[in-house]
Specification:
Layout (H helix, E strand, L loop, with lengths): L7 H18 L9 H5 L5 H22 L6 H21 L5 H25 L11 H18 L3 H8 L6 H25 L5 H25 L8 H23 L1
Helix pairs in contact: 1-3, 1-9, 3-8, 3-9, 4-6, 4-8, 5-10, 6-7
Length: about 260
């Protein structure tokens, strides 16, 4: 049995991480950004990312089944073009960064997304008239989506920057992101394998967390149809801010 399965931190932070991903894919879009930063408190970031990828792929299947008829095709294609470019950039650079550097990077990503959410909230973007940015802007945010998705499985916030002003129906919003990451995670699998990130140990870790992940996914799908999710985001992004500060601090200390 791999040592990680005997670690309480693996189970505590891993369960929180897959629950966040599951709720996100179930419709609480954006919560996924909390997943890897939390899991990286227990494991090296790349190990955590490798464990999460097969779990995310299983969750993607549940998500696209639930939202199989809900997709904005133009936004999907525009973002996917950028995501493929960003995935290639992430694959080419991720293994050249130390664990401390990755913690710092994941921490900065978490901080940036948390602060971005609060800025958008204060600016009242949710109340603005619907607006679709030019396709070039969608490709730009798609590139960042691909890079952050490859490194930290945190691609949703850049995609949200492009999608949020469009004021899509909640199911279409969740479905478009669900289909996008279904494709992106399949594309990510090959470079993860080629870089040796996915091993027997990480697959065992993935299998151990899978039941919690699917439960979180189904709970998110059930919950998002019954309650208003907006009131939960200040708490989630407040937590993300704290986790981002912790990882950033650890990364800086590791590099000094």
């Amino acid at each position: 049995m791999p040592d990680l399965l005997t670690s309480p931190a693996f189970w505590i932070y891993g369960t929180i991480a897959v629950a966040a991903f599951g709720l996100s894919k179930g419709g609480f879009v954006g919560l996924a950004v909390l997943g890897l930063p939390v899991f990286a408190l227990a494991l090296p970031p790349l190990t955590a990312a490798a464990i999460m990828l097969p779990v995310l792929m299983a969750q993607d299947i549940v998500t696209i089944w639930a939202f199989r008829k809900n997709i904005d095709r133009r936004s999907f294609v525009v973002l996917l073009i950028g995501c493929l470019i960003g995935t290639a950039i992430g694959a080419a650079t991720v293994t050249s960064i130390s664990d401390a550097g990755l913690k710092l990077m994941v921490g900065i990503i978490a901080l940036a997304f948390a602060l971005n959410w609060w800025v958008l909230r204060l600016r009242g973007v949710a109340e603005a008239p619907p607006y679709r940015a030019p396709d070039a802007a969608g490709v730009f945010w798609g590139i960042w989506c691909g890079v952050t998705s490859f490194i930290a499985h945190a691609g949703a916030p850049p995609a949200q920057v492009y999608l949020m002003p469009q004021r899509l129906a909640p199911a279409v919003f969740a479905g478009t992101l669900g289909w996008l990451f279904f494709v992106v995670n399949i594309v990510k699998l090959w470079p993860y394998l080629q870089l040796g990130l996915i091993t027997r140990e990480t697959l065992i870790g993935s299998a151990a967390l899978l039941p919690f992940a699917i439960a979180g996914n189904m709970f998110g799908i059930w919950l998002v149809r019954r309650i208003t999710v907006a009131r939960f985001y200040p708490l989630i992004y407040g937590m993300l801010l704290l986790v981002g500060l912790k990882l950033t601090w650890d990364g800086i200390n590791g590099l000094i």
